[in-house]
Amino acid sequence: MDLTQFTDKEKHDRAKKMMLWFGIASLIMGFAGVTSAYIVSSSREDWIQGLELPQAFYISTAIIILSSFTFIIAKKASKNDKSKQATTWLLVTLGLGIAFIVLQFFGFQEMLGKGYYFTGPTSSIKMSYVFLIAIVHIVHVVAGLIALLVVLYKQMKGKYSSKEFLGITLGATFWHFLGILWVYLILFMSFVK
Fold it and tell me: How many domains does the chain have?
């Protein structure tokens, strides 16, 4: 493939997409390392068996899945030059993203209420992993919310249309990745006892 046949804009757009996919690949490797360590540590004698994850984690899972659908609707509206509709659905996605994080903290409160702590004399290695996995994911969701705010700002400024929607596409791709990652993590923590 001869890259000289592409315009500068096409090259710039390809570079942005490639950077996003490199970032996603590095996140996958990072979480693969943490979940591998979780599996290795599960053979320890002090590993808690039969731990039930907080109900709030499961509710937040439904919320983040729903937010992917609202982002899809927003992207479709933007591609169809329905700016107000796109803005509305991006705002809904933002609200759902914030609700996801709030529910995660409710989950932490539930675990603390049952006497499970991240560190300290009453903590366990398994609970430390559960807290760590959820907290690191929350940090990435915050990054996703910042990206979503940038997309929302640009949408409100009329930067996206049927002719130009790369930014909203990149934002949606990252957001969907975060949702898929959380679904994987919740399933992992539910079934790898």
Answer: 1
DSSP string, 46-109: TPPPSPPPPHHHHHHHHHHHHHHHHHHHHHHHHHTT-HHHHHHHHHHHHHHHHHHHHHHHHHHH
> Is the predicted pLDDT of residue 4 greater than 70, yes or no?
no
Q: What is the pLDDT of residues 117-176, one digit of tens each?
A: 888 877 788 888 999 999 999 999 999 999 999 999 999 999 998 888 899 999 999 999
Structural domain that includes position 44:
3-191
For the entire predicted model, the pTM comes to: 0.90
The domain spanning residue 15 has which CATH number? 1.20.120.80
Write the DSSP string, 11-43: HHHHHHHHHHHHHHHHHHHHHHHHHHHHHHHTT
What is the 3-class SS of 102-157, one letter each residue?
Answer: HHHHHHHHHHHHCCCCCCCCCCCHHHHHHHHHHHHHHHHHHHHHHHHHHHHHHHHC
